[in-house]
Automatic annotation (TrEMBL):
Key word Oxidoreductase present: no
Protein name per Swiss-Prot or TrEMBL: Putative F-box domain-containing protein
Family matches, as InterPro entries: F-box-like_dom_sf, F-box_dom
Nucleotide-binding among keywords: no
All residue ranges annotated as the F-box domain in the record: 33-83
Residue spans crossing the bilayer: 161-179
Disordered: annotated span: 1-34
Length: 186
């Protein structure tokens, strides 16, 4: 039988040249990196059973293996909607909320709800609610008001609207100037 690990060499207590003691040398042990994918499928199923719908959906689309292992069926969607309702958060109220498939379910308002969740916009929307993504007492990932306004301006304002605001600026400045001029003349 062949072994991949080289046999341990015994060395003398005193090295021939240096005269200092040398301990028994062993080959370095291989370092294994533990990952979620390396766990058995039974543990994958157990972990997936404790996830909420958005987390299970994210895990489902990380690899082909998790796509077939993680269940994002109707029961999980309904449980997520009931949890949102109990926390007094927004729930989809349009008629297009189809529980049949993930693609149809995530269209419309559910897509916006999940985006708000990813951006931690719902965290601490009520006092004492905490972080809804990580389940902690306080949300450390919520962006400041200035950052949220800048990202909203970048995403919502189109070029046409920027030109409109640019054209509106001289009109507003002219009105302010006329008001100042009227107070000086009287």
């Amino acid at each position: 039988m062949f072994s991949l690990v080289p046999p341990m060499r015994r060395t003398s207590r005193r090295a021939a040249k240096g005269g200092h003691e040398v301990a028994n040398q062993r080959p370095p042990e291989p370092v294994s990196s533990a990952s979620l994918a390396g766990l058995p499928t039974e543990l994958h199923l157990l972990i997936a059973s404790h996830l909420t719908y958005p987390d299970a959906l994210s895990l489902k689309f990380t690899s082909r293996h998790f796509f077939y292992v993680v269940d994002t069926g109707v029961r999980l969607k309904v449980a997520w909607l009931k949890e949102r309702r109990s926390l007094h958060l927004e729930c989809p109220n349009d008629r297009r909320c189809d529980l049949g498939s993930d693609l149809r379910f995530c269209r419309g308002s559910v897509k916006l709800l999940m985006q708000r969740r990813r951006e931690h916009l719902e965290c601490e929307s009520r006092p004492g609610l905490g972080c809804l993504v990580f389940g902690t007492a306080a949300c450390a990932h919520r962006r400041s008001l200035g950052q949220r306004c800048r990202s909203w301006l970048r995403s919502r304002l189109t070029i046409e609207l920027w030109w409109f605001l640019l054209a509106l600026l001289p009109i507003c400045l002219g009105c302010i100037w006329m008001a100042e001029l009227a107070t000086w003349s009287s």
